[in-house]
Amino acid sequence: MSSASGSHHELQTRTYPLAESKVLMREMAWGPEQWPQSLVSQGFRRKSVVSGSSTVVASKDQVSSDLGGEVAILDLKAGVYYGLDAVGARIWSLIQEPRAVNEIRDILLEEYDVDPERCERDLLALLQRLAEEGLIEVKDEAPT
Fold it and tell me: Which in 4, 20, 29, 35 has the greatest CB count within 10 A?
């Protein structure tokens, strides 16, 4: 595959390390006054610690497009573009609807040849960065 920018990582089927799933980031601060009230009332928060028991979903304040297996995401509020490589794009496709982090991990373990501990660690790190940038909402599972 080639990229217009010339910078591209090839996906090696079933052996691509999740740690290589890079997100192009810019630091932003999100305050409660910026959270859509409908999401707050449902228990979703923009800034949260992501755990295996969390449920995550792509924010409504973004648009994204598949670019030949990678994804470009535009934060509509900040006007900032982000990019995800092939593995990040797969994760992004899985969170277009609310999904448990542990479920995402299990899907990735079926699709990629990766150590389970590394998979979970890298997945949590990516989702945490996406949450910090306001690109996903996080809902913690209520204690039972």
Answer: 35
